[in-house]
Structure formats: structure tokens, C-alpha cells
Amino acid sequence: MELFTLLCSLAVIALYGYTWLGLVVLFFTWWLITLSFIDFDTRLLPDSLTLPLLWGGLLLNTRHGITDLTSAVIGAVAGYLILWSIYWAFKLLTGKEGMGYGDFKLLAALGAWMGWQALPIVILVSSISGVVLGGGLMLFGIIQRTNPIPFGPFLAIAGWITLLWRDTLVHLL
């Protein structure tokens, strides 16, 4: 975990340098790593971590940190509502819960940090990485199809990648 955090931190410093925004993005990175490991261990994304991340993104963007405030507010609302809608559609169709409310709040926080424009990329990258990893784990018999896999780490990874390399991803996709 420490080596992974170091490598992510070095990537942030390389891209943002020693600036106030670089420091803020370092905290964002560490927060997402913490949330990912908690979700992997417990299948829970605690409000005590997701909600301050959301409020921090909105506050950051009052100063046009990463995006404008309007995009950040719409991103927070849209991020929550997108996964909330998918949750309810899945539940109505199958009678099962497909994800937790913490996932809604994490995507809302990512929307608050990067604006609504980043949400399609985050959803696409997190979905692809979840399918690839989940499929790989099933293929090698590490997990069964019925075992739930937390979605939060995939959202966090996709959010972090999108924050650092959005322009590159837009050109690739």
C-alpha cells in the first residue's frame, strides 16, 4: 500500500509540481486510496470520508481549482443521480441491490472535483476496469460469480486517472 501511495504521489507531483493545487491533488489521491482499501476490506464507503471529499471538491472549485463552480455542483448532483438511477433500475429488474449508497456519494464527490464533463469518462473507465478485473478473477477461479466485488475502488481509480490524464483519455476514447 505504501509503495502504491508513493508511486501515485510521485505522479501527482510530476504533473502538478509543487503548487497549492498539487498539494490539494495529493490529498485527493491519498483520500481515494484510503477509500479504496476500506471498500475492499468492508464493502462500505463511509460517509465520514465520502462527504468531506464532496464538500472539498466544491470548495476547491469556488476558486476555479479544477473546474468552475457551476460544473462542480452539476457534477455532484449528476454523479449521485446517475448511480442512484442505475441502482433502482437494477433493483426493480432483479429484486437485488447491485451497489451501495457509498458508490453514489463517491461519484458525486468525483463530479464535485472535476465537473459533470468528467463523469462519462469516470463511469466508462471504472466499468471497463471492473469488468476486466472481475472477469479475470472469475476466469482464474479466485472468486465465484455470486461473490460481490466492491465498485468503489474502480470509481476511485477511474476518478484519479481522469483527474490526472483527462485530455489523454478523451483523445483515446
Briefly characterize the structure.
This protein has 173 residues and is mainly α. The protein has helices at residues 2-16, 20-42, 47-60, 69-94, 101-114, 119-139, 152-172.
Walk me through the structure.
Helix content is 77%, strand content 0%. The chain contains seven helices and no strands. The protein is globular and about 45 Å long.
User: What structural class do the secondary elements suggest?
Assistant: mainly alpha
The end-to-end span amounts to: 30 Å
Number of separate helices: 7
Largest sheet: none
Shape: globular
- The percent range for strand residues is under 5%
Mean of pLDDT: 93
Radius of gyration: 16 Å
Unreliable parts: none
The counted number of beta strands is 0
Q: Summarize the helix and strand pattern as letters.
A: HHHHHHH
- Helical content band: over 70%
Assembly state: single chain
Characteristics:
mainly alpha; 7 helices; 173 residues; single chain
Secondary structure elements and pairings:
Layout lengths: L1 H15 L3 H23 L4 H14 L8 H26 L6 H14 L4 H21 L12 H21 L1
Helix pairs in contact: 1-2, 2-3, 2-7, 3-4, 3-5, 4-5, 5-7, 6-7
